[in-house]
Amino acid sequence: MKINKLAIIFVLIAFPFTWLNRLHASEQSYNLRTETAYNSMLDTAVDDAAYALHSKLKQSEQYSGYDSDKRYSLDVQLAVSTFFNTIFINMNAVEDQVIQETIKHYIPAVGVIGYDGFTLYTEEEYQASGQTYYKHIMRPVKPYTHVDDKGNVLQFTLDDYVVVYNPSTKQWSRGYRQELEDRIDIPLLRDAPLFDSVRRQTIIEHIQNDLAFAINKHNERARRNGISYTFTLPTIPDEEWQNSINDVGVIAFIQGLPMGSGVYNNYALGGSRILKASLYYGFTLNGIKYVYPSKCTSVNPEKVFSSQREAAAEGYILKRC
Amino acid sequence: MINSIAKVAGLIIAVLLLFVFPNQDLYQRQDDISSMLVYKCVTNFVDAARDIGYVTPQMYNDFFDELAMTGNSYDIQMEHRQKRYDPVYLDPTDVTTFQDDVLLNYEYHARGDILATLFPDNTKAMDDKSRQYEMNIGDYFGVTVTNTNRTAATVMMDALTGGISANHNIVVPYGGLVRNEDQ
């Protein structure tokens, strides 16, 4: 019976290990699925927010007459509330104020990259009627300013439009770089590639500094709320920054959200590009109406449609090339 | 006599406890880890395709190679449901019978269609535009990966239980709407 005893001893020793192994494996797979769900939640929320930015498509009056499509007055408040709504729906917290506030502690900052400035939505301390409140509020817009060696102040935007203050002549001027280069004596305005790289660097630095500051500040408050996680601005590859400042957009962070034995950390950058709708060209062949995507044909169409649905509503049958 | 039967029984139990069950458990873990890797690959591939709105041969090859790293063979089912609006005609050859109505249909493209675009019967370069499989915003793109070989865990489980179970130990379905069109 010796071998039996050996087997039993082996089982006694090995069983805890295999059991732990099994627990770890199931936790890993649970984590993986939760992470995927959270990733898609954050992506959807940022996309929704970026979409909401543009939902009131009206050009701000300050810039009326200029035809840059990046230049819309953004509905920042709506974008942020859309972002949180989507998060709450995904977290099943639409009606639960307490969970909503708890989730917000894990979102140190939501930023909106506007045409001429950057806005943050973070938790702030403020006093009203004798009481101190900690609440997420919208910060004022911070312009993308840059001071050159001679003390000239340049306020950049997401395209070539720039506002310049010259301290020696005490003069403000605004306009596109090409318009200003002959009128104002600033070397930066004459050098288009340099102007672009300085502009991009300035914008990225502004956003990074603001975010880093807000996230650091958040640490302090988070600890009071019982979150023992050190929030830091994650390293975001330079390429992603370059792409994200091509147009107005939204950036959001979720950090330290507990998940099994680990924590969930992620960020999402969402742009709100206006996509050019593809056109559909309508023809009549042998008495039957057809419509082709515009890229398939170069012949002059009888009728042009901006969507498939429009074409179908008039009886055109879709053909693909 | 009784002693020797007990000895044989003891030996069998010892072999089961010492070798068969631990191995079965390890193989099962191996399958769990493979299935997690497959899950990660599938979500990455599908999310990338949905984000940019097309599938390139390179993307598909990378995806395929990553799956092969698990040492199993897989059946990759892809489906693309292309959204299309069709006008309602009583007789499609007669324009006057148009019913002033539109139907929303989904045109179903399975793996064969997609692979035929990605890997055509010609010698065009890998990054040729014509080899991209393009989708539109609002279309549905999904991938289901199932393993086709009998994994060691399945084999051992069947040997122990005397059953004949199906091969499918790893099944990962994933999909969603196409969100972007970068042509």
- What's the rounded overall pLDDT mean of chain B? 88
Q: Measured on Cα atoms, how large is the radius of gyration of chain B?
A: 25 Å
Q: Whole-number average pLDDT of chain A? A: 82
Question: DSSP helix count of chain B?
Answer: 4
Description:
The complex is a heterodimer of chains A (321) and B (183). In chain A, the strands form two sheets. In chain A, strands 1, 2, 3, 4, 5, 6, 7, 8 and 9 form a nine-stranded antiparallel beta sheet that branches. Helices cover 40% and strands 26% of the residues of chain A. Chain A has helices spanning 2-53, 76-90, 97-105, 177-180, 187-190, 192-224, 238-244, 308-313, and strands at 110-113, 117-128, 131-138, 142-147, 153-156, 161-166, 171-176, 249-259, 262-271, 280-285, 288-293, 303-305, 317-318. In chain A, helix 1 (2-53) packs antiparallel against helix 2 (76-90). Chain A has eight helices and 13 strands. The radius of gyration of chain A is 27 Å and the shape is extended. The N and C termini of chain A lie far apart (78 Å). Chain B is of the alpha+beta class and 183 residues long. Chain B is built from four helices and six strands; from the N terminus they run H-E-H-E-E-H-E-E-H-E. In chain B, strands 3-2-5-6 form a four-stranded antiparallel beta sheet. In chain B, strands 1-4 form a two-stranded antiparallel sheet. In chain B, strand 2 and strand 3 form a beta hairpin. Chain A binds chain B through residues 1, 3-4, 6-8, 10-11, 14, 18, 21-22, 25-26, 28-29, 32-33, 36, 40, 47, 275, 278, 284, 287-289, 308-309, 311-318, and chain B through 6-7, 10-11, 13-14, 17-18, 22, 25, 29, 32-33, 35-36, 39-40, 43, 83-87, 89, 92-95, 98, 100, 102-103, 137, 176, 179, 181.
